């Protein structure tokens, strides 16, 4: 499944025939925030191929959400598409309630929704924009997780999306990087808190990936977008992230909690 977002980005690949499902998530009930596009869509399709029932939360792009629904159903999986705002505690709770009403509970929660905006200097960042980053990227994880935990049992898995920027920094993405650092701490602390319940909490830290979130650089500094790369000399593809989330969701990773998978094309983070 491919998509063309912009001439400055390579064609986006969400999943390929080379990925063979093996029922690693058969009948699992999955909720993915920000699941309509980018990494979230790739995760949705990979988990659907592994036999999961997949619910996605999207913010405003109904067309993209519908494409993801069609992709999930093409994998023979049941799909649930929900519109909401991770910046709203009420919306997060409503989303969880809808999944529970449909399927009776949640086995895997993927907190993936996020936003970023570049700034040249601290003085350019308004209080409202700083707060918006934390509302969407961090507070949404807290509110969605808190609501979901009421309906998760032993064997459940929570997977958060942080970023390589939490470990190496990014001069143009100070608010975004700060939220991703907060996610790292939250993941590690929550993992310890939930050990006794048998619920694992891990995270994926993507490097530069060809998704629409990168297009914020187009109006800020187009050269940054053109030069965005990794030690491998290219951007990653969402399809290269999907299997990492599957691994953390299934019992293949049963001895992992509080950990980070760095899928970043060779960027050394020492974290």
TrEMBL record:
<keyword id="KW-0560">Oxidoreductase</keyword>
<dbReference type="Pfam" id="PF13561">
    <property type="entry name" value="adh_short_C2"/>
</dbReference>
<comment type="similarity">
    <text>Belongs to the short-chain dehydrogenases/reductases (SDR) family.</text>
</comment>
<feature type="domain" description="Ketoreductase">
    <location>
        <begin position="28"/>
        <end position="198"/>
    </location>
</feature>
<dbReference type="InterPro" id="IPR002347">
    <property type="entry name" value="SDR_fam"/>
</dbReference>
<dbReference type="InterPro" id="IPR057326">
    <property type="entry name" value="KR_dom"/>
</dbReference>
<dbReference type="InterPro" id="IPR020904">
    <property type="entry name" value="Sc_DH/Rdtase_CS"/>
</dbReference>
<protein>
    <submittedName>
        <fullName>SDR family oxidoreductase</fullName>
    </submittedName>
</protein>
<dbReference type="InterPro" id="IPR036291">
    <property type="entry name" value="NAD(P)-bd_dom_sf"/>
</dbReference>
